[in-house]
Design goal:
- There is one protein chain.
- The chain is an alpha+beta fold and 238 residues long.
- It has a single domain, classed as Distorted Sandwich (Coagulation Factor XIII, Chain A, domain 1).
- Helices cover 11% and strands 26% of the residues.
- The strands form 2 sheets. It has a 5-stranded mixed β-sheet with strand order 3-9-8-5-6, with no helix packed on it. Strands 2-1-4-7 form a 4-stranded antiparallel β-sheet.
- Strand 1 and strand 2 form a beta hairpin.
- The radius of gyration is 18 Å and the shape is globular.
- The relative contact order is 0.21.
- Its EC number is 1.14.99.56.
- It catalyses: [(1->4)-beta-D-glucosyl]n+m + reduced acceptor + O2 = 4-dehydro-beta-D-glucosyl-[(1->4)-beta-D-glucosyl]n-1 + [(1->4)-beta-D-glucosyl]m + acceptor + H2O.
Length: 238
């Protein structure tokens, strides 16, 4: 009986770990920056990624863990020229219904004091459902499932400075039970740009939408809706 219980617990843990995913590395300007790997990484190489405790999802949009999956600091940062691409790489991803949203946050000073607080987050990229039905695989997360990466362009006009970049996958495969997967990394944006978003492009995390938002709480198998709108503000392109 003890053996059976231990085996069952181990099997459940393995199944749980196999069901989720996280950003495990970044490719920026031809350089690969390792991130954290494994279901619950206790340590890893020095990295630009803010360390996360595990890749269990956050299930409440108001939970502070939704910001960077609990990550608060990183040892390194990566330089990226405005107008160039950032690729987030996933070792695994298993869900095909839900949007991908890529956010940035301009730090007021150095990274140690950059906590992501306030109404300063903005989107630079997103993809929700591109064709019905909701239960199909015409979603941003389905592309991550297929390719195991997501690539975005830093707006060319973005002002230089220290930024956090946040890759968020919102899994909607369970009816009215959203799962948020988000990781953050530290970037130094270079270039001659002078623009920063303002007004309706800015949001607070947590707090960019309500749990009841139709883009958050949706029954992808029971709903007859033929369109989908990603939660939060519109994408800022510069």
């Amino acid at each position: 009986m003890l053996f059976s219980s231990a085996f069952t617990a181990a099997a459940l843990l393995a199944a749980q770990a196999a069901a989720h995913g996280a950003v495990t590395s970044y490719v920026i300007g031809g350089t690969t920056y390792p991130g954290y790997e494994g279901f619950s990484p206790s340590s890893g190489p020095k990295t630009i990624q803010r360390q996360w405790p595990d890749y269990n999802p956050t299930t409440s949009i108001s939970d502070k863990k939704v910001m960077c999956n609990g990550g608060t600091s990183a040892d390194l940062n990566a330089s990226v020229a405005a107008g160039s691409k950032v690729r987030a790489v996933y070792k695994q991803w298993t869900h095909q219904q839900g949007p991908v949203m890529v956010w940035m946050y301009k730090c007021k000073g150095d990274f140690k004091s950059c906590d992501g607080s306030g109404v300063n987050w903005f989107k630079i990229d997103q993809e929700g459902m591109t064709a019905p039905p909701l239960s199909g695989n015409s979603w941003g997360t389905a592309k991550v499932y297929k390719n195991l990466y997501w690539e975005s362009t830093i707006p060319k006009s973005l002002a230089a400075g220290n930024y956090l970049i946040r890759h968020e996958l919102l899994a909607l495969h369970q009816a009215n039970a959203p799962q948020f997967y988000a990781e953050c990394a530290q970037l130094i944006v270079t270039g001659s740009g002078t623009s920063v978003p303002s007004g309706a492009f800015l949001a607070k995390i947590p707090g960019y939408a309500a749990q009841s938002d139709p883009g958050v709480t949706v029954d992808t198998y029971g709903s007859k809706a033929t369109t989908y709108t990603c939660p939060g503000p519109a994408v800022w392109t510069g």
